Amino acid sequence: MNAPRLLVLQPSESDPLAKLGDWLEAEGVELDLVQLKSEPAPANLDGYQGVICLGGEMGALDDLDHPWLADARRLLSSAVSKKVPTLAICLGAQLLAAATGGQVRKGPQGPEVGVLLVAKRDAAGMDPLFADLPFTPDVLQFHNDEVHLLPPGAEHLAASPRYPNQAFRVGESAYGLQFHIETTPEIVLHWAAKDPDSASCARPHHFDQEFLEEAHRDFEEVWQPFVARFAKLVRGELLPAGGLGTQLPLV
C-alpha cells in the first residue's frame, strides 16, 4: 500500500513544518511541500489524501501584497468540499475560516503570545482528533489576528479567555488551530526577535530557552498523539466526525 500523500502549504519561511513534519513522517506520511511565496500552488487536490496549511506573518486577506493567498483559500475550500482531511495552523486556520464563510479580523484585544492554555469545548468530546486531548492542553500562541466568526456549521472545539475561536472543524475533517503545535524553541525565539512588539505582550520568562524547552516537551506529549490521529484519519483508519466512510479493521 502506497504511503498517503499530504500537500503542505507553507506561506512563510519563518514557520516551517518543524516538529509537525517529524511526527507525520514517523507515521509514514509522504509530504509534498509548496512554499507559496516562491512556487505555484497546485491547481487541485488530485493525488493528495490530506492537506496541511501553516502559519505566517501576513493577514489571511492580504491578497494585494500576497496574491497567492487566494490559491491557499481555494485549495482549503476544495479540501472541505471533497472531505480531504486538513490541518490548518494559525494563519492557516484563518485562511480556512475565510475560505468557508467565516470572518477574520485584527484581534481587538491585542496580540496573544506565549505558552498558554486553551480549553476544550463540549463538541470536542465527540471529535475523533480532540476527544483524547487533556481538557486544557498547553499551546504556543503568537498571533495578532483572530477568527472573529466561525464558518456556518463549523464545530467549535477549543477556546481561550482572550480569543474564543481557538480550534474548530469545518465539515467532516478540516481542522483549524489558531495556535501553534509545530514549533521548536529556536523558531519561537526567532519570532520574538523579529516581532518584539508582539513578544512584549507575553510574560518575560516565556522566551527563556529553558522554559521553552520544557514547554515543547509538554507540547510533544500532547500533540504528537493528536497528529498521529490525524495521520490515521488520512489513512482511512479513523472515521471522520459524523462520517460513514470505511474504517480499516483492527488486526
UniProtKB/TrEMBL annotation:
It holds the Pfam family GATase. InterPro entries: ChyE-like, Class_I_gatase-like, GATASE. It comes from the Bacteria. Residues 26-185 form the Glutamine amidotransferase domain. Keywords: Glutamine amidotransferase. This is Glutamine amidotransferase. The gene is guaA.
